[in-house]
Amino acid sequence: MLWQTLSFDWGVAQVLLWAVAGLMSFYFSFGSGRVWTSIAVGFFLVLLSEVIPQAAPFFPRLDIPQVEAMGYIVSTLAILVMTHGFQEYYVFSRTFEMNGRRRYVYLGVLAVILASVVFILINPVPDRETLKIIRIVGYSNWVFLSLINVDMIRKIHVQVAGSPISRGFIGFLLVFFFFFLWKGSALYLEVYHLDLLAEQYTVRYMVSMWVGNIGNILASLSVGGTFLVLARALR
Question: What is this structure's pTM?
Answer without folding.
Answer: 0.92
